[in-house]
TrEMBL record:
<feature type="compositionally biased region" description="Polar residues">
    <location>
        <begin position="88"/>
        <end position="98"/>
    </location>
</feature>
<feature type="compositionally biased region" description="Polar residues">
    <location>
        <begin position="180"/>
        <end position="199"/>
    </location>
</feature>
<feature type="region of interest" description="Disordered">
    <location>
        <begin position="131"/>
        <end position="199"/>
    </location>
</feature>
<dbReference type="InterPro" id="IPR050400">
    <property type="entry name" value="Bact_Cytoskel_RodZ"/>
</dbReference>
<feature type="transmembrane region" description="Helical">
    <location>
        <begin position="108"/>
        <end position="126"/>
    </location>
</feature>
<keyword id="KW-0472">Membrane</keyword>
<protein>
    <submittedName>
        <fullName>Protein RodZ, contains Xre-like HTH and DUF4115 domains</fullName>
    </submittedName>
</protein>
<dbReference type="Pfam" id="PF13413">
    <property type="entry name" value="HTH_25"/>
</dbReference>
<keyword id="KW-0812">Transmembrane</keyword>
<feature type="compositionally biased region" description="Acidic residues">
    <location>
        <begin position="148"/>
        <end position="178"/>
    </location>
</feature>
<keyword id="KW-1133">Transmembrane helix</keyword>
<dbReference type="GO" id="GO:0003677">
    <property type="term" value="F:DNA binding"/>
</dbReference>
<feature type="region of interest" description="Disordered">
    <location>
        <begin position="73"/>
        <end position="98"/>
    </location>
</feature>
<dbReference type="InterPro" id="IPR001387">
    <property type="entry name" value="Cro/C1-type_HTH"/>
</dbReference>
<dbReference type="InterPro" id="IPR010982">
    <property type="entry name" value="Lambda_DNA-bd_dom_sf"/>
</dbReference>
Length: 289
């Protein structure tokens, strides 16, 4: 009996469906079907054949290592195979801060500042002229010298204008600071090397992934954004996620850096500390406040 037949027989004996195995192992159903048929060509690479067989075997109660040893002649040899890269379902979009509004904002602030200054000068001139116009009439009627009183009245008016101008300038120059995106670990499971992250203080979810080597990964929301290998040729991968949750199935995290809204995502399970953490499942949820 072939390796795939043993896996299928064990699954059917336990009354398990392929959908159940997919949920348990996080391996796509089409890969599970190819394992049962001993068809290795569908799998993303020879590196994943043994890993997928071992996880499938453990899910149906078999000894994965013993099964691999028993059927090692059926497994593919380590030869290079061409891989088909899956083009992302939509164009990558980046937020590089090139919004025309940001270029126009400094000019708008300068215009507002000039308007405030001109208004302050106009207001000061009006206050200076009014006492001067009324003083001749007062001197003719009452024959009283009012110049000293006018000077005393003008000085507080000028001081008030200067204070108003400074306050207006401060109001124009001060801009509210936008809160930065917060990323927190909501839950994690070391046995399946799965981490759930929550992203808050934002209403959008932008992903950017950079690789210094070659990593297989799958990015999936309601549809698959990417499935294949990322390396120096196609790095970085950048996506604007339309859903509130995205799932990253990562075959190898070594040399792979993930950014969420420009903030680097820290691995809850550091692959540099333990080889068991190389393959990980990461779920990112957008939490709107």
């Amino acid at each position: 009996m072939q390796l795939g037949e043993k896996l299928k027989e064990a699954r059917e004996e336990q009354g398990l469906s392929l959908d159940h195995i997919q949920k348990e192992t996080k391996i796509q159903k089409r890969y599970l079907e190819s394992l049962e048929k001993n068809d290795w060509s569908v799998l993303p690479g020879q590196f994943y054949v043994r890993a997928f067989v071992r996880e499938y075997a453990e899910a149906v109660g078999l000894d994965g290592d013993a099964l691999l040893e028993e059927h090692k002649e059926e497994l593919p040899t380590h030869t290079d195979q061409p891989y088909e890269y899956v083009t992302p379902s939509r164009s990558n979009r980046t937020s590089d801060g090139s919004n025309p509004m940001f270029n126009f904002l400094p000019k708008l602030l300068v215009v507002l500042l000039v308007v405030v200054i001109l208004f302050a000068i106009y207001y000061a001139v009006i206050n200076l002229m009014e006492p001067g116009d009324s003083s001749p009439a007062d001197s003719n009627d009452d024959n009283i010298i009012t110049a000293p009183e006018d000077e005393e009245e003008e000085e507080p008016a000028e001081e008030e204008e200067e204070q108003d101008t400074e306050e207006n300038e401060e109001e124009v120059e001060e801009e509210p600071e936008e809160p930065s995106t917060q990323i927190e670990v909501a839950s994690s499971d070391e046995s399946s090397v799965t981490t759930n992250y929550e992203v808050s203080n934002t209403d959008q979810l932008n992903l950017s992934l950079e690789s210094t080597g070659e990593n297989w990964l799958e990015i999936k929301g309601d549809s698959v954004y990417f499935s294949g290998f990322i390396n120096n040729d196609n790095s970085p991968l950048e996506y604007e996620i339309e859903e509130d949750q995205v799932h990253l199935n990562i075959g190898s995290t070594q040399g792979l850096t993930i950014y969420v809204n420009g903030e680097e995502l820290d691995y809850e399970f550091d692959p540099e500390e333990n080889d068991d953490y190389i393959r990980q499942h990461i779920y990112i949820d957008l939490v709107e406040e």
